[in-house]
What does this fold into?
Amino acid sequence: MRKLIISIFVLLLAVPAWAIQPQTEDQKTLYALGADLAKRLSVFNLSAEEYEFVKQGMTDAAAGNKLEAEPEGYQQNINKLFQTRLQAAAQKQKDLAKPYLENAAKEKDAQKMASGLIYQQIKAGTGAQPKASDIVKVHYIGTLIDGKEFDSSVKRGQPAEFPLGQVIPCWTEGVGKMKVGGKAKLVCPSDIAYGDQGRTPIIPGGATLVFEVELLDVKQPPAAAPETKKPTAPKKKSKK
It folds into this structure.
């Protein structure tokens, strides 16, 4: 499978961009595979020169040529490079988010919590207020600070339902401040969202996330089934 992916990627790199215009569903699937691989490599933030070495390694592997550096022997180096570039990319995202967070905290009715969450009520609810142990039903739209949408239950046309205590800390705290029927904006710094790892390639490491959430319902978790008491084994009679 790895060789197949490498071969496809090499073919995509070898042919001029103007020569490839995917028409069929199979061609579009291959095109999407190439785009996905490129997005996964983006975390390395490769320079033009570095990218050429990556392309050469893939070309040699796909062609069955003798490799200048075996992946198995360089796995530790690859992991170290990944972590170094990941941390640098995460820090860049955090630096970019600082002005946004400062401005968001100054908006009307915005509250900045000790955790870093910026909570802004859009519409007050009148129903129940959830606890972390409750199950909540919500509609939401999630965006990055540049406005790019990465997730939306509204677009799917299906509300999300989940235990409030089992999501990112920003949601547990933010939705926990809402009441059914209410709507709020949650600005979530990376520390209380997906951290330095992010959810690549959709959410970069270190990214601040912005959610518009509408709380539709609150349910108590189903009661745990009572434990069946095991019968006590009869004691042996003591010898007299």
The chain has two domains: 2-68, 98-219.
